[in-house]
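can u pls check wat happens w/ adenosine-5'-triphosphate
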Amino acid sequence: MISFNNVSVSFDLPNGESRTVVENVSMDLDRSDMAYLIGPTGSGKSTLLRLLYMDRFPDEGVAQIGDYRSDLIDRSEIPYLRRSIGVVFQDFQLLPDRSAYDNVAFALYATGKKRSEVKSRTMKALTRVGLNHKRSNFPHELSGGEQQRVVIARAIANDPWVLLADEPTGNLDPVVADEIQELLVSLHRQGMTLMMATHDYRLVKKYPARTFALMNRQLIEIDPESL
Ligand SMILES: Nc1ncnc2c1ncn2[C@@H]1O[C@H](COP(=O)(O)OP(=O)(O)OP(=O)(O)O)[C@@H](O)[C@H]1O
């Protein structure tokens, strides 16, 4: 379960004023949902995702992901929260001097897993994204779509119940974007809750799901067919 309950977020500007990005927004996602977050550049899509992995806290209201609530969480719990969810960003953020395998394994070692478990989870995650055969390749030897598959493998290696994705297809051409979207949809069908920020209305129409639009500081659920 994911929810925003009357959430407002403002940022302080260098001139001493503050800018409200979202104001009193609310939404609820069920465990079985897939949802898009759409809106113009600067409307606050990344900010809402950041509230969910608690990289930032609401000024008003409550953000909740699973059992973790922004108003009740202790700072020491945040690493556990982040281990329970998967996160994918637009810029690939792969370690350039590590193979695809090591990029995924590295994230698992960081959570304190044993070598044998790291190996089995890494192989499973790379297989799920269709990239096990390229596990020894370095990022520069992989296409943009393949690099994004490694990022997704890294995000799902810990078997999270939910995947948060911020413009996961943003740097990819339409054919490759479709392939990545099909992978995300298949992960959702296999049981993962999916919440994804995107600019790409073409993808939203082609792979329809619950759609929330951010505009003028408000969040409303819309019919993806209306885009
Ligand atoms: N740490 C920060 N300090 C000040 N302003 C910020 C900060 N983070 C975000 N903002 C501002 O908040 C607004 C919303 O940013 P956000 O990145 O959430 O938008 P977005 O919808 O994800 O945009 P894009 O589609 O371009 O990624 C923007 O005007 C941005 O400049």
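The mean pLDDT is 94.
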